[in-house]
Amino acid sequence: MSLKGKVALVTGSTSGIGLGIAEALAGAGASIMLNGFGDPGKIEALRVSIEQRFGVKAGYSGADISKASQIAAMVAETQKAMGSLDILVNNAGIQFTAAIEGFPEEKWDQIIAINMSGVFHGMKAAIPGMKAAGWGRIINIASAHGLVASAFKVAYVAAKHGVLGMTKVAAIELANSGVTVNAICPGWVRTPLVEKQLEDRALATGSTVEAVTQAMIAEKQPMLQFSTPEGLGALAVFLCSDAAKTITGVPMSMDGGWTAQ
Ligand code: NAD
Are residues 168 and 206 in the same domain? Predict the structure, then answer.
């Protein structure tokens, strides 16, 4: 499958799932606009390494996905620097856990802004160019928590359910435009976002990280293994293919059976 000539912007691609998806799309031949936070030297090394390993053009935008104006500017910058924006992967996300009655308001606002509103602002900015080109792929990284809930994750679960809702709206609006809009719903993936939850839980229970890891997976997933950024990247490449051109408005789970229960 070749995505040669296509340009992909992956938000939150300096780490974890976003990086796995950016590398998979680059491996299929797409030029990549990276985005996300981190050490500037490490990000520049990553950008250069993507260009060298995959023979594609790679850029970087430091846009903060909690800010609508920065998202619009990042989309415009991608179109200007790379010639177009054909594939948008809305992946940037954060987590915070607490019971509703003690959930800090600023954490609620931040998670809704990044995990949900950022997806809306990204789609809003990218859709006109995709419609004009008559081809586009939008992939929103939701979660098993877009389909079902867990305690202590009120903002995250609300945001991810919202992402699935707006994915369906966009799919219907764009049905005959050549642009598909889908969501991917991962179960557990061992990234820094999950590593922090494992460390917090180990600290709270006086247990080891490895022991809480096994317990945490078993609590939710029939399959006792992590999904991987590489696997999710391969799914994103498939959704960009011609074979997937009539898949739209769908939440695609890669969750080890989590939501089959
Ligand atoms: P991660 O912490 O490894 O990566 C998150 C990325 O988002 C980083 O590149 C970070 O710099 C970026 N980011 C955070 N805030 C940002 C902001 N304001 N502006 C721009 N970039 C920002 O996390 P991950 O596990 O790879 O998560 C990626 C996505 O996958 C998230 O949307 C998350 O909700 C979702 N997800 C993760 C899992 C999992 O088990 N890891 C499961 C389901 C869904």
Answer: no
| Strand order across the beta sheet in which 179-186 lies | 58-61, 31-35, 7-10, 87-90, 136-141, 179-186, 251-254
* Closest ligand 1 atom number to CA of residue 113: 18
Both 202 and 148 in one domain: the answer is no
What tens digit of pLDDT does each residue of 37-75 get? 999 999 999 999 999 999 999 999 999 999 999 999 999
Cβ of 188 closer than 6 Å to ligand 1, yes or no, is yes
- 140 occurs within a structural domain: yes
Question: In the chain, where do the E strands start and end?
Answer: 7-10, 31-35, 58-61, 87-90, 136-141, 179-186, 251-254
Give the lowest-confidence range in 28-37, 197-206, 243-252. Answer: 197-206
Residues 169 and 220 in one domain: no
Domain of residue 205 covers: 190-226
Q: What's the structural domain count of the chain?
A: 2
Distance from the alpha carbon of residue 176 to the mean position of ligand 1, in angstroms: 31
